[in-house]
Amino acid sequence: MPTSTGSPTVLVVEDDSDLRQVVVDTLESHGFAVAQAADVSDALARLEGFAYDGLVLDLRLPDGDGFDILDAARERYPAIRSVVVTGCGGTPEAVKALKRGADDFLVKPFPLMDLARLLHDGIVHREAIGDEALQDDAASSRPFANVIGRSAAMRHVLDRLKLVAPMNSTILVQGETGTGKELIARTIHEHSPRRAHPFVAFNAAAIPEGLIEAELFGHVKGAFTGAVAARAGRFEAAHKGTLFIDEVASMPPPLQTKLLRALQEREFERVGESRSVKFDVRVIAATNVDLRELVKDGRFREDLFYRLNVVPLALPPLRARRDDVPLLAQHFLQKSCRSNGVPARTLLQPTLRCLMDYGWPGNIRELENAMEHAVAMSGTERDITEAMLPGEVRSSDRSALLPPVTIPDEGINFLSVMSQLERELIVRCLEKTGGNKRQAARLLNLSRTTLIDKLQRLGAGLAAGSA
Q1: Strand partners, 203
Q2: Fold of 321-399
């Protein structure tokens, strides 16, 4: 598995085990940290878990061709240096690979020094990630282009958006703070039949409790102290459009009752007035807590919960969609450069790996702030290095995975300690994935078959769990 040192990292994909090992040995002798895969599925699993600097790829593999690998690598890491290797007669395939974004190709048998040179020159002298046009082209060619992400978790969200956006159904968006709930609500509105009408956002936690009702439903002149003139509320402002109610869980019980009635009757009364006002509004509510738990605790009306939860939409935290970090980081980096009027910056691969290793408790919002911080710290430098990232991101050192080890005077049994560490890492990943070996293998950057071999070697007690 690739190391966390400053060595450039390369993934070698070749089904011929003898040739693969020769290539690996040669590259390692030239200072590369090398991972290897024998087929398409193994290579794709490895690409999901690590940002490689380089890719050496045989196009003809036992479970498919290498174009899927090439496409996946370039989508996730636009900076990756890719070299296609092909047998005699495979030149047309290599040319096709170049047209699809490969950087170089070599025909077997090829001088190993040529491969090492191509990778070294390409990785050392090439800008890592800076082709903003590549991102824009990719975004413009798909629906919901403002929702950035190609991970399995986000593909599920996008599939749901396609279904619910054209409807008038009430939607409850659930997700941790910083996962982009308002962006999703705006996206739904912009792809709905109501897009020509207003999108109105209302944060229930940002308004003092005594003013929430007036803000939501409006008030007449003299309704309360300070009401010097009549004012329309958010429901009226959103007429024929969409009303987004953020942090709906923070609504006090009396307002929950009034909101429920409004949603049921499709009408409300302004504060200080008994006349009912009809409205035509689609409501999208959002919460960062589990409303079901609040219902159980008696802190949220059950009938209001069911009225809001017509179509639930759960947003994954960033730690559950790590594959999307490169795209999001690049997007926010270029956005910050534009807003600050500075030349475009480039993300170096070691910096990208640091970003992918971090847990992002603040989710997408924290990543955006980190890129803003990096641009501010870059000064006149064009490359974004790890040192320019916020301290908490840099401090997520991979060495934190290692348990504390005391070295006694008599020394240690190295193989025994390493076996215990290997066992602990596998156990933790299996616990994290609920025993799913395929998912655990991806977390460990291993193939599923390699993980199963390790499970068998380390003990049958680890081998339980789903495929």
Answers
A1: 246
A2: Helicase, Ruva Protein; domain 3 (1.10.8)
Q: What angle in degrees, to the nearest 10, is found between the helix axes of 325-340 and 349-357?
A: 120
Spatial distance between the Cα atoms of 435 and 426, rounded to a whole number of angstroms: 10
Helix, strand, coil % in the chain, rounded to nearest 5 = 50, 15, 35
For 25, residues 6+ apart whose C-beta sits below 8 A from its C-beta are none
Alpha-helical segments (H) within 32-143: 40-49, 67-76, 91-99, 112-125, 132-140
Query: Does 9-125 carry CATH code 3.40.50.2300?
Result: yes
Type of residue found at 8: P
Q: Express each pLDDT in 412-445 by its tens digit.
A: 777 777 777 788 788 878 877 777 787 788 777 7
Model confidence pLDDT, tens digit, residues 30-69 = 888 888 899 998 888 888 767 788 999 998 898 888 888 9
What architecture is the 411-462 domain classified under in CATH? Orthogonal Bundle (1.10)
- Given the DSSP bridges, would you call strands 199-203 and 171-174 parallel, antiparallel or unpaired? unpaired
Cis peptide before 109 (omega within 30 of 0): yes
Give Dmax over CA atoms of the chain in angstroms: 88
CATH class of 152-315: alpha beta
